[in-house]
Amino acid sequence: MIIRFLTILVILNFNFLYSQSDERLSNITKKNSFNTLEDALEQASSIIELSLANKKLSELPSVIEKFVNLQKLDLSNNELTVLPDELTKLVHLEEIKLAANKFDTFPDVLTKIHSLKKIDLAYNSIKKIKSDIKSLKNLTFLKLSKNLIDTFEGVRNILPNLQTLLLDRNKLKEIPTFIFKTDSLKILKIGNNLISELPEEIEELEYLHKLSINNNKISFLVDEITELKNLKELNIESNQIKSLPESIGDLSNLTQLFVGQNYFTKFPKSVSKLNKLHTLHIANNNEKTLPEEIMLMKNIVSLDLSDNSLSDFPKFLDSLPKLSNLTIRNNNIIKIDSNICNFRNIKKIDLYDNDIEEIGTEISCMNNLLSLNLGKNNILLIPDEITTLKSLKILILNENKIEKFPENMFKLKNLRIIQVKNNNITKKSKKRLIKTMVKTKIYF
């Protein structure tokens, strides 16, 4: 068995070197590295963190048992299919990373290491999770993303301390029932599966902060979801949902809502009660008009309306006094509406991939604008008024039909980046820009 690897990263516990006590290893640590595993073994009992990631390992050497005080072990990006029984002797092990290996089953050895708190098994080929996992009573974090999991066999009431469960990008057709008995769960990501129904039992996850059920086949949101009073982030993008529950406003702690690529035409009026909501993504609904109830969300800071069929700026936008980040990519907008002057607090506007032909003089009123993306439009001329945007730091104008820039572009003292690739800019205009804007990175 070859056990020589370049640059094995470890963290040594020097407190342990000078003390033979059985106290836990958390005081004085120092990062170090070794050229071979044999070198690391010379100080094995003092090492608390060990990285063997990216070593093309097909087996984990049994000498791993010598690292008796190991707390964290990184075996990511190898070719492992099994783990040795010797791993169970690491009674202080709290975190193990096994992402991007070749496991097709959940390693049984892990279920015998009761000290484990964090397990990362993402990017493997695991198909089933068996009930043996219930022995991991101290587990707080479990990542099983990007596997082939379609069932949890016999798994019922388990993992009492689990706070984060990541099951996205698997083959699940329903949400495993044991999840609803996991009282401590705060983060649940189960997007990109084959789930068609959100059960009423979802209300039992009273401490849940983040819920991602995006990219499934869900057509209806049960009212019980509004019982999640601690929920801060909800992602239901890319499903078949036509409406939100009438009581959605009861999610009083909700700060981020992602509802794009569904079939919404209106929102319940109770959205006006979402006083903490600051981020709303309603992209890819294929709508020419959007729910006017959005105007009731007075505290929205970031709004994404990309990938719809909008030909005009939504009229209700000036009803959002705190809006500072507006994204309307890939629509059919022809011009920047004159009512844009009502959005005086906006700092970032992204209108990439529309049908805008000109930038009107009204742009001059955007005094707080920091970033403007007008790439992939049909713009021919940049007006002099753009030079009044004294706060502007980023200007993106790629893929247009621009030939020249105003001579006084140098007035944009804070501009740090300007992108103008794939335009028709004359040599004379290029030279002027380069000469007068010495503090700006220019990408032609």
CATH superfamily of the domain at 333-444: Ribonuclease Inhibitor
Uncertain segments are 1-6, 14-31
Quantity of strands, as a count: 22
The largest sheet is: 20 strands, mixed
Which helices and strands appear, and what pairs or packs with what?
Elements: E1 8-13, H1 14-17, E2 29-34, H2 37-41, E3 47-51, E4 72-74, E5 95-97, E6 118-120, E7 128-130, E8 141-143, E9 151-153, E10 164-166, E11 187-189, E12 210-212, E13 233-235, E14 256-258, E15 279-281, E16 302-304, E17 325-327, E18 348-350, E19 371-373, E20 394-396, E21 417-419, H3 427-436, E22 441-443
Parallel strand pairs: 3-4, 4-5, 5-6, 6-8, 7-9, 8-10, 10-11, 11-12, 12-13, 13-14, 14-15, 15-16, 16-17, 17-18, 18-19, 19-20, 20-21, 21-22
Antiparallel strand pairs: 1-2, 1-3
Describe this structure as you would to a colleague.
- The protein is mostly beta strands.
- Helix content is 4%, strand content 17%.
- The protein has a domain of 112 residues: Alpha-Beta Horseshoe (Leucine-rich repeat, LRR (right-handed beta-alpha superhelix)).
- It contains three helices and 22 strands.
- It starts with 7 loop residues before the first strand and ends with a strand.
Quick take:
The protein has 444 residues and is mainly β. 4% of the residues lie in helices and 17% in strands. The protein has helices at 14-17, 37-41, 427-436, and strands at 8-13, 29-34, 47-51, 72-74, 95-97, 118-120, 128-130, 141-143, 151-153, 164-166, 187-189, 210-212, 233-235, 256-258, 279-281, 302-304, 325-327, 348-350, 371-373, 394-396, 417-419, 441-443.
